[in-house]
Design goal:
Blueprint: H1 5-16, H2 20-43, H3 53-65, H4 75-101, H5 111-116, H6 119-138, H7 140-151, H8 156-163, H9 167-192
Protein backbone atom coordinates (compact mmCIF):
# COMPACT_ATOMS: atom_id res chain seq x y z
CA UNK A 1 0.00 0.00 0.00
CA UNK A 2 1.39 3.40 -1.04
CA UNK A 3 1.08 6.00 1.72
CA UNK A 4 -1.01 9.06 1.11
CA UNK A 5 1.02 11.89 -0.37
CA UNK A 6 -0.26 14.18 2.39
CA UNK A 7 1.15 11.86 5.10
CA UNK A 8 4.58 11.88 3.48
CA UNK A 9 4.46 15.65 2.98
CA UNK A 10 3.44 16.24 6.60
CA UNK A 11 6.30 14.07 7.87
CA UNK A 12 8.79 15.80 5.54
CA UNK A 13 7.75 19.22 6.81
CA UNK A 14 7.97 18.01 10.43
CA UNK A 15 11.42 16.53 9.75
CA UNK A 16 12.56 19.83 8.17
CA UNK A 17 11.46 21.52 11.39
CA UNK A 18 13.81 19.29 13.38
CA UNK A 19 11.44 16.51 14.46
CA UNK A 20 13.60 13.35 14.38
CA UNK A 21 10.60 11.18 15.23
CA UNK A 22 9.09 12.28 11.91
CA UNK A 23 12.14 10.89 10.11
CA UNK A 24 11.71 7.55 11.87
CA UNK A 25 8.06 7.44 10.74
CA UNK A 26 8.91 8.66 7.23
CA UNK A 27 11.56 6.11 6.23
CA UNK A 28 9.28 3.05 6.37
CA UNK A 29 6.66 4.95 4.33
CA UNK A 30 9.07 5.82 1.52
CA UNK A 31 11.19 2.66 1.59
CA UNK A 32 9.25 0.79 -1.12
CA UNK A 33 9.33 3.76 -3.51
CA UNK A 34 13.05 4.34 -2.90
CA UNK A 35 13.71 0.67 -3.67
CA UNK A 36 11.61 0.95 -6.83
CA UNK A 37 13.58 4.03 -7.86
CA UNK A 38 16.88 2.22 -7.19
CA UNK A 39 15.70 -0.82 -9.20
CA UNK A 40 14.86 1.51 -12.10
CA UNK A 41 18.39 2.88 -11.98
CA UNK A 42 19.96 -0.56 -11.69
CA UNK A 43 18.02 -1.88 -14.70
CA UNK A 44 20.02 0.57 -16.80
CA UNK A 45 23.27 -0.88 -15.49
CA UNK A 46 25.06 -3.90 -16.90
CA UNK A 47 24.22 -7.30 -15.41
CA UNK A 48 26.43 -8.18 -12.47
CA UNK A 49 27.01 -4.52 -11.56
CA UNK A 50 29.11 -4.42 -8.40
CA UNK A 51 26.72 -1.99 -6.71
CA UNK A 52 23.52 -3.72 -5.66
CA UNK A 53 20.07 -2.16 -5.31
CA UNK A 54 20.14 -2.44 -1.52
CA UNK A 55 23.51 -0.71 -1.34
CA UNK A 56 22.22 2.09 -3.58
CA UNK A 57 19.17 2.57 -1.35
CA UNK A 58 21.28 2.50 1.83
CA UNK A 59 23.74 5.06 0.46
CA UNK A 60 20.83 7.26 -0.67
CA UNK A 61 19.29 7.00 2.85
CA UNK A 62 22.55 8.18 4.38
CA UNK A 63 22.80 11.12 2.02
CA UNK A 64 19.12 12.03 2.42
CA UNK A 65 19.46 12.10 6.19
CA UNK A 66 22.41 14.49 5.78
CA UNK A 67 20.19 16.96 3.88
CA UNK A 68 19.84 19.32 6.82
CA UNK A 69 19.28 22.54 4.87
CA UNK A 70 16.49 21.28 2.62
CA UNK A 71 13.01 22.65 3.25
CA UNK A 72 11.00 19.70 1.99
CA UNK A 73 8.00 20.79 -0.06
CA UNK A 74 6.23 17.51 -0.74
CA UNK A 75 6.61 13.87 -1.72
CA UNK A 76 7.64 14.66 -5.31
CA UNK A 77 10.35 17.05 -4.08
CA UNK A 78 11.71 14.34 -1.78
CA UNK A 79 11.88 11.77 -4.58
CA UNK A 80 13.42 14.32 -6.92
CA UNK A 81 16.25 14.84 -4.43
CA UNK A 82 16.52 11.06 -3.91
CA UNK A 83 16.81 10.56 -7.68
CA UNK A 84 19.52 13.20 -7.89
CA UNK A 85 21.45 11.53 -5.06
CA UNK A 86 21.17 8.05 -6.62
CA UNK A 87 22.43 9.41 -9.93
CA UNK A 88 25.44 10.95 -8.16
CA UNK A 89 26.14 7.67 -6.35
CA UNK A 90 26.13 5.72 -9.62
CA UNK A 91 28.30 8.31 -11.37
CA UNK A 92 30.81 8.22 -8.50
CA UNK A 93 30.79 4.42 -8.68
CA UNK A 94 31.38 4.51 -12.46
CA UNK A 95 34.23 7.00 -12.06
CA UNK A 96 35.89 4.76 -9.48
CA UNK A 97 35.48 1.73 -11.76
CA UNK A 98 36.83 3.68 -14.73
CA UNK A 99 39.77 4.90 -12.61
CA UNK A 100 40.51 1.35 -11.47
CA UNK A 101 40.38 0.06 -15.07
CA UNK A 102 43.03 2.61 -15.99
CA UNK A 103 45.37 1.23 -13.32
CA UNK A 104 44.63 3.71 -10.56
CA UNK A 105 44.63 1.96 -7.22
CA UNK A 106 45.33 -1.29 -9.06
CA UNK A 107 43.38 -3.88 -7.10
CA UNK A 108 43.57 -7.58 -7.85
CA UNK A 109 40.18 -8.88 -8.98
CA UNK A 110 38.98 -12.06 -10.57
CA UNK A 111 38.00 -12.16 -14.24
CA UNK A 112 34.34 -12.45 -13.20
CA UNK A 113 34.58 -9.28 -11.11
CA UNK A 114 36.37 -7.44 -13.89
CA UNK A 115 33.66 -8.40 -16.38
CA UNK A 116 30.94 -7.14 -14.04
CA UNK A 117 31.76 -3.48 -14.56
CA UNK A 118 32.83 -3.15 -18.14
CA UNK A 119 34.84 -0.15 -19.14
CA UNK A 120 32.39 0.48 -21.97
CA UNK A 121 29.43 0.67 -19.58
CA UNK A 122 31.27 2.98 -17.21
CA UNK A 123 32.33 5.17 -20.14
CA UNK A 124 28.71 5.32 -21.40
CA UNK A 125 27.40 6.38 -18.00
CA UNK A 126 30.11 9.03 -17.73
CA UNK A 127 29.28 10.28 -21.27
CA UNK A 128 25.60 10.66 -20.33
CA UNK A 129 26.58 12.47 -17.14
CA UNK A 130 28.96 14.77 -19.03
CA UNK A 131 26.28 15.58 -21.63
CA UNK A 132 23.74 16.25 -18.88
CA UNK A 133 26.23 18.54 -17.11
CA UNK A 134 26.70 20.50 -20.38
CA UNK A 135 22.94 20.75 -20.85
CA UNK A 136 22.51 21.93 -17.26
CA UNK A 137 25.22 24.57 -17.75
CA UNK A 138 23.38 25.86 -20.84
CA UNK A 139 19.84 25.47 -19.50
CA UNK A 140 19.50 24.51 -15.85
CA UNK A 141 15.74 23.93 -16.10
CA UNK A 142 16.08 21.42 -18.95
CA UNK A 143 18.87 19.65 -17.06
CA UNK A 144 16.70 19.36 -13.96
CA UNK A 145 13.78 18.04 -16.01
CA UNK A 146 15.99 15.31 -17.50
CA UNK A 147 17.28 14.42 -14.07
CA UNK A 148 13.80 14.15 -12.57
CA UNK A 149 12.17 12.37 -15.53
CA UNK A 150 14.94 10.05 -16.72
CA UNK A 151 16.93 9.37 -13.60
CA UNK A 152 14.20 9.97 -11.04
CA UNK A 153 11.39 8.31 -12.93
CA UNK A 154 8.98 11.10 -11.99
CA UNK A 155 5.94 11.65 -14.17
CA UNK A 156 5.51 14.86 -16.13
CA UNK A 157 2.99 16.02 -13.55
CA UNK A 158 5.29 15.24 -10.61
CA UNK A 159 8.17 16.99 -12.36
CA UNK A 160 5.98 20.06 -12.93
CA UNK A 161 5.00 20.02 -9.26
CA UNK A 162 8.59 19.76 -8.02
CA UNK A 163 9.74 22.55 -10.33
CA UNK A 164 6.66 24.77 -9.91
CA UNK A 165 6.07 24.97 -13.67
CA UNK A 166 3.24 23.79 -15.89
CA UNK A 167 2.98 20.25 -17.26
CA UNK A 168 2.99 21.50 -20.90
CA UNK A 169 6.25 23.32 -20.16
CA UNK A 170 7.74 20.10 -18.81
CA UNK A 171 6.55 18.21 -21.91
CA UNK A 172 8.01 20.80 -24.31
CA UNK A 173 11.34 21.10 -22.50
CA UNK A 174 11.61 17.31 -22.00
CA UNK A 175 11.29 16.79 -25.79
CA UNK A 176 13.89 19.48 -26.52
CA UNK A 177 16.30 18.16 -23.89
CA UNK A 178 16.04 14.57 -25.16
CA UNK A 179 16.76 15.72 -28.71
CA UNK A 180 19.76 17.76 -27.57
CA UNK A 181 21.17 14.91 -25.48
CA UNK A 182 20.66 12.40 -28.28
CA UNK A 183 22.58 14.69 -30.65
CA UNK A 184 25.40 15.20 -28.12
CA UNK A 185 25.75 11.48 -27.42
CA UNK A 186 25.60 10.56 -31.10
CA UNK A 187 28.23 13.15 -32.01
CA UNK A 188 30.42 11.88 -29.17
CA UNK A 189 30.30 8.33 -30.55
CA UNK A 190 31.11 9.55 -34.07
CA UNK A 191 34.06 11.58 -32.79
CA UNK A 192 35.42 8.50 -30.95
CA UNK A 193 35.20 6.33 -34.08
Amino acid sequence: MIPASQDVTRLLVDWSSGDQAALEKLLPLVNAELRQLARRYMRRESPGHTLQTSALVNEAYLRLIDQKQVQWQNRAHFFGIAAQLMRRILIDHARKAHYAKRGGGALKVSLDEAAAVTETRAAELLAVDEALEKLTAMDARKGRIVELRFFGGLTEEETAEVMSISTPTVQREWRAAKAWLRRMLTEGKEDAA
